[in-house]
Amino acid sequence: MLCYWGEAVKPDGFGLVKADSVKFTDTGIGYFSPKSRIRDVSPGKSLVGFIRGDGNASVMRLNTREPVKSGKLKTLDQMKDKIRLISCGDVDAVLLAYGDRILSVEKSNVCRPIKELSSKTVIQVACGDQHFMALTNDGQLFTWGRNSSGQLGLGKGELSSLSPQPLKSLCGIPLAQISAGGDHSFALSLSGAVFGWGRNSAGQLGLGHTEDVYSPTCVNNLSQKKTISISCGEEHTATLSKGGAVFTFGSGRYGQLGHNTFKDELQPRVVTGLWGINVSQITCGRNHTLALVESSNTVYSFGCGEQGQLGNGQRTNQCVPLPVQLPPAANNSHTVESIIAGGNQSFVLCSSQKSDVPDQRKGIVTLGDKMIHRWVSECESKQWRTIKKEIKRVFSSPACINGSFIIKSCDGHYQTSTHVSGLDLDSVKTAFERLAEKERVLLEVEKVVEKDLLPSLGFTVAGVEALRVFLILPELLRVLKKQGHETKLTSYASAILNLDSCTRTVLENLWSELPETFLKTLVELFHTSVAAMISKVTYDYRQKIAMDTPLRKSVQVLQMLYKATCRNQREITPGDFIIYEINELFDMLYAIQKDIDEFYGGFVWYGDLNVTVAEKQHHMNTLKLLSSCPCIFTLEAKYGLLKFREPRGPFRMELRRTALLEDCFRQLRAASEQALKGWLQVVYCENFEKSDVYKRDFFHNAFKMLLDAESEMFMYNDTKTLIWFPVELSLPEERYFVLGVLCGLAFYNNSVVHMPFPLALFKKLLDIRPSLEDFAELSPIVAQSLQYLLNYSDDDADNMCMIYTIVWNNREVELDPVEPGKAVTSSNKKVFVDAYVDYVLNKSVEKAFNEFKRGFYKVCDRNVVNVFQPEELRGVMLGSEEYDWDVLKMNATYEYIFHARHPTIVSFWEVFEELSSQDKKAFLLFLTGFDRVPVLGMGQVKMTVRQLLNSTQDHLPQALTCHTILDLPVYQTKEILRTKLIEAIHHRRGFWEE
User: Fold this and answer.
1) For 71-83, how does the pLDDT look when each residue is reduced to its tens digit (9 = 90+)?
2) Cα torsion at 829, 830, 833, 835 (round to 10°)?
3) Do the Cβ atoms of 143 and 133 come closer than 8 Å?
4) Residue ranges of the HECT domain (predicted)?
5) Residue 208 has what DSSP assignment?
6) CA 722 – CA 715 distance, rounded (Å)
């Protein structure tokens, strides 16, 4: 039975039955039972389409100029196709045949196949007033027609199109439904994500504004609402959630939103009048809305009723949902199957028995257990050709892959967000391992993935669901361990890097939430690949060009994975990312550099110098490329990057002993950036004489003078162990700029200095925001109080009598200037603590630190500094205090007459072991130019002891700090050695020698 109401159309019954066969209720609802069952109805503005039970389609074109619309029902020439879906627009219609062929119906009622979609299997169609949409079974959405308001979704500035155009921005989103309104469009994903675009004059896109949108945009307010259906009116939209809740938005001038008001809604709002009654279907007409409650066989209507389209016998508008009084037969002996609204009309299809007609709205193809079983069990049969087509259809489509493994239990996939993938990853692993059981199937999958899927992944992502493929593919690549594996991995990496920065951040979020085994699989794939490529470029110069791009892309993705693992506490450790093959690259560089040095040193050397220099440059470029992925370097390898820099000329400073800092600051201030990046040479000038000075001695004494309390450049913390920038600057800001330059010089010249800054400084240099833990290092007592405040469990913290006014460095500071004296409470205590830390470590020292940072990076390249973690950067610059004197002795070597058992050497080590800890540090300073241990440990101090030639018992030991050489006289007794050694290590020497 077919019921209808709304704008009058002659003849009664639309020509489906004789006019006298149509009965009407008191409220004006017409109903009749045609001989041939009506399976689908689609009302447009000036035409109405019908599909009969036998698959034949008819269209009635209405004369809209007359007071009462009239027309003649005409059967369409369907070219022998049986029709299952019809969608009508303003004057055109689109048909979808059972063979999934799509036909257009023009004004002449001639059906023509849409050639551009002839090779596609279309599963859904939708028509707006003058635009059209078609969804294919491989997840592609095509649009065509008018694009006046962006309703085609092709982007701003795109013209209307007569032929279907793929909507690339939704590529990868597994769509469940499409819907078109007057001049706007919607698409719904399998996991309930809602995307809208087009005209938005009344807020019908639900985005919170009224500006037209030219590309699909996610309606965030509907996220995780479990949306299962969408219907569009002319300027309003309705959505249905799985629990039966209805949301409406857009124009409300006729009450079509059902919110008991005639106001527009710019964002989705639940229809409270339908709350709790479990709505099962919704449909929108031009300015009215219908809702079906299947359990009670009740249809509700609201909105414009001027043409009787509400079915209540009135011609007034209605802003709340009220039941439609259907004919008695519809309630007693029939069941409402579907409701349809369009234009100013409403239709209800009823059946006296349970329908045997399958759901006409098909879904995209997805990979399931039954399909995999058939592929594996029948791949050797005559069905192989069909199976190959199915493999291509599924594995060439990101949308099909993304929709294949969603969490179905407890509606888990509806929870998809920027941190939740909605994927059943166990089913991913099971499916691909099952495919791997048959080599023939796996090889075909591999071919399609490499040829079709991977190249298609360079798309703009409109929603999180499109990123699922990046979580699924690693499990597939894991089982595809065939030749050319690195090529597929490179294509996968390219697709990731083609995503915009915001989307890559979302992907990192999803990676960080992956179960341990799946994330480890992904890390191992790239780790193994990168290690292999590094080995190739290290030992085979011919691999340079072939490996350059794949290596660059793979290390960038590996660094992204490292960031993802750092977001949560994982079993995957930083050590899992280290690639020890880099050490082989450094070994090769050392060997090449040795050959070059031997050539210029005049040694006998065989080889082509040009080739050797070119090979060195190649390895240097490789190191530069790898430095974009610091996580793969050991600390030793990172330290090695400082030694292998682009060769620059020397940077020479001529200084007076009596005006060291004055001369140093003046020359650093005037030096160019290019000059500062050269190797440092320090020359002492006094009384018209010049002498070279070891740069380590220079740095040691320059920083010692800077730390003088009278310098006023720093403030000390409570324990007098750390320095920080003062709140009030008594010296010009430029001094901190030059200080930064000096620190940069020390870093670039591999010199350990004593500048006891807290870790916060090094975090700030690396653009990492310091935390309360960092503040605790600088001011442990205050930090402990702040931590106590955070841990305080009382719901009312007001009794602590704390306010937002603090005292720091003898200054009273308002942390909230807008509200002086604001009280600290349980609700704002975290904000207070964050503001306290931010003031001390950031705001109060902003000027001084910014100048320091500017000076530091005038010398240092950011890409080199960024290789280090904050703790590592501090270690490289400041060294450590982990003194292991046994390692110093173990690593010592001897020259000339000396050896480990020589009496002088035996006495030396006996004397050394008897020295105080301070004297041992003084010896380290005497030997190396710094009194702290290098960041890599005492093992980096390779001391060479040799005989001081032409020396007597009166001579003191001497040291060549740049080479860590100790020149030791042959003393007759241990006592003489002790006396001379202590005198030497405490003597003013080198640059400071009187």
Assistant:
1) 999 988 877 889 9
2) -110
3) yes
4) 696-994
5) S
6) 8
697 and 684 co-located in one domain: yes
User: 925 — alpha (psi -120 to 50), left (phi > 0) or beta?
Assistant: alpha
**Kind and range of the H or E element at 523?**
helix 516-539
Q: How far apart are CA 338 and CA 348, in angstroms?
A: 6
CA nearest neighbour of 397 among 454, 461, 435: 454
Q: Give every CB contact of residue 409 below 8 A, 6+ residues apart in sequence.
A: none
CATH number at residue 712: 3.90.1750.10
State how far the alpha carbon of 282 is from the alpha carbons of 231, 341, 486, 825, in Å. 7, 9, 50, 49
Confirm if 63 and 350 have CB atoms less than 8 A apart. no
Structure confidence at residue 358 (pLDDT):
47
Q: pTM here?
A: 0.83
Phi, psi of 127 (to 5 degrees): -125, 135
d(CA 121, CA 99): 8
Q: Are 323 and 302 in contact (CB under 8 A)?
A: no
Is the alpha carbon torsion for 106, 111, 112, 118 positive or negative?
positive
Q: Which residue has the tokens 């819907």?
A: 179
Identity at 775, one-letter amino acid code = F
Two structure tokens written together for 898: 């000396």
Of the residues 878, 898, 926, which one is the last residue of a structural domain? Answer: 878
Sheet holding 281-284, edge to edge: 281-284, 288-293, 298-303, 318-323
More confident residue, 306 or 613: 306
**Structural domain tally of the chain?**
4
CB 446 within 8 A of CB 215: no
The one-character DSSP state at 245 is: -
Query: What are the pLDDT digits (tens) for 923-942?
Result: 998 898 888 888 888 998 99
Ramachandran category for residue 232: left, alpha or beta (phi over 0 → left; psi -120 to 50 → alpha):
beta
Residues with catalytic function: 962
**Co-location of 375 and 469 in the same domain:** yes
Is the pLDDT confidence value at 545 over 70? no
CA 438 to mean position of chain CA atoms: 36
Distance CA 200, CA 149 (A): 8
Provide the edge-to-edge strand list for the sheet that holds 83-88.
83-88, 93-97, 102-105, 111-113
Residue 867: CB atoms within 10 Å: 22
225 within domain boundaries: no
Range of the domain at 790: 777-841
Q: What is the bridge-based pairing of β-strands 944-947 and 893-894?
A: parallel
Least confident of 404-408, 487-491, 884-888: 487-491
